[in-house]
Amino acid sequence: MLNVSICIGSACHMKGSREVISRLKQLVAENHLEDKVSLSGSFCTGNCQHAVCVTIGDTLYSLSPETTDEFFKNEVLARVGA
Amino acid sequence: MSLTTEIAYKSLNHYGEILCGDKVEIVHRPDSDIVVLADGMGSGVRANMLSTLTSKIFAEMLEQGSHLDQCVETVIDTLPNDPQTHVSYSTFSILQIFHDGRATLIEYENPECIFIRDDALVPIPKHERLTRGKIVNDYRFNVKIGDTFLLMSDGTIHAGVGKKNAFGWPWEDIADYALKSHRTSQSPMRQAIRLCEACNELYDGKPGDDTTVACVRVTEEKIVHLMTGPARNPADDEKMVADFMSGDDSVTRIVSGGTSATIVSRVLGRPMQVSLDYGDSDIPPMGEIEGIDLVTEGVLTLAEVIRLIREYADTDKVDRAYFRKLDDPNAAARIAKVFIEDCTRVVLYVGTAINAAYQNPDLPLELGMRQNLTRQLTEALGAIGRPVETHVY
């Protein structure tokens, strides 16, 4: 199971966590990856300057609602091999 | 035994009047809590001045530590009489509840206080005595946890006179209604609102008299600890968390702040889960740490908590619609609800570390203002009668 963790702390929230989360949920459903990808929340990881902070394992990604699709394609789909 | 009280009140103005002729004053003394409900004769400006005069004399004298009997004498001496009817220009009820469980109820010409104990109405015995030529009812007794009292102005018993109720709303029926609503409404404010809204319906939305209900409930101390912001010096994290966790299981513990929550989780060695469920709200979702009652994001949530508490402080505007907002499951409403309905005293644990990332000009100013927010929170809580103690790290 690939875990994608999205920060919902103050700064990330202001920069669009809500939209990022709802888009990721949608993409997971559209690609039928519910059994392979789990989405979880996290509070501040101390990287607010990179908001919205998303982590896979120990790797930190800086997303915005506009770059969510690209992130999903390059980082999530590539990892689960779909 | 150390008891305390929750006191709330709601008024309806006489139809077409801007000012209310009823006035409630609440006084917190080191030995006791006191509520005064005064009803000035007539309506509008004159009634408002008479009831304000009456309630303010009580409040000022009681705050300075005067004995209740002395206050009653002073008020009766001060109040002018109507030259035609020889009736005083203001009626009043006062309930004083001492932290050791003693209580005094003094009533002068207001409808009798409704007393609910163990899910039943308790009649208040007549102990009338003459004070300065006036007959007051004076009842001294002991209270216990859960006892609920409703003080009322006569706008309640006159509700609907000549319309829905030929002779108004009989006291016995009001008492039954209060007992039923007591079984379902959780807080004194909700109960005061339900009674006032029932009166308003009987008046067809046009009250023929100023109508006020003050509800007093006897409770145990309910202490709330709220931690927000990381300590300026990370070496103080452990001490800050230990202080925050002090006290027994009866303390409600709230962590408001992502970094603070992460610190609490690390120091206590308990994992944190963070929800992704926003519901219908714009407030960030909540987290969960075993043993912590509420775990939330910090500044945005607290700013909304402050807005909700300030709105509650404006008793003219609080109604059922307000409580629907307060019952929403979002993080800010849940914190505000604890402060408003389940709290008698607050202890804040405030960290003063500056989050460098928040100095980013792309982010709203609000984020960098934690100090300012905790000051505003303290003021808002003070305005609704919740004393606040603050520890800074």
Characteristic terms for this protein:
heterodimer, A: 82 residues, alpha+beta, Glutaredoxin, four-stranded mixed β-sheet, 3 helices, B: 393 residues, Phosphatase 2c, domain 1, 2 domains, six-stranded antiparallel β-sheet, five-stranded antiparallel β-sheet, 10 helices, 18 strands, 27% strand, elongated
CATH topology of the largest domain in chain B: Phosphatase 2c, domain 1
What is the fold named in CATH at topology level of chain A?
Glutaredoxin
Class by SSE composition of chain A:
alpha+beta
Shape of chain A: globular
User: End-to-end span of chain A in angstroms?
Assistant: 13 Å
Sequence of strands across the biggest β-sheet of chain B = 2-3-4-5-9-8
State the CATH superfamily name of chain A.
Glutaredoxin
CATH hierarchy, class of chain A: Alpha Beta
Q: Can you walk through the features of this model?
A:
The complex is a heterodimer of chains A (82) and B (393). Chain A is built from 3 helices and 4 strands, in the order βααβββα. Chain A has helices at residues 10-14, 17-30, 68-80; strands at residues 2-7, 37-42, 53-56, 59-62. Chain A has a 4-stranded mixed β-sheet, with helices on one face. The longest helix of chain A is centred in the N-terminal third of the chain and has 14 residues, at 17-30. Chain A is globular. The two termini of chain A are 13 Å apart. The model of chain A has no long low-confidence stretch (mean pLDDT 89). Chain B has 393 residues and is of the alpha+beta class. Chain B folds into 2 domains: 3-220, PPM-type phosphatase domain (Phosphatase 2c, domain 1); 223-392, Rossmann fold (3-Layer(aba) Sandwich), CATH 3.40.50. Chain B has helices at 44-63, 68-78, 171-184, 188-202, 237-244, 258-268, 299-313, 320-326, 331-341, 370-383; strands at residues 3-12, 22-28, 32-40, 90-98, 102-108, 114-117, 120-121, 128-131, 134-142, 148-152, 211-220, 223-228, 252-256, 272-274, 287-289, 294-296, 345-350, 388-392. In chain B, helix 1 (44-63) packs antiparallel against helix 2 (68-78), helix 7 (299-313) crosses helix 9 (331-341) and helix 7 packs parallel to helix 10 (370-383). At the A-B interface, helix 1, helix 2 and strand 2 of A face helix 6 and strand 14 of B.
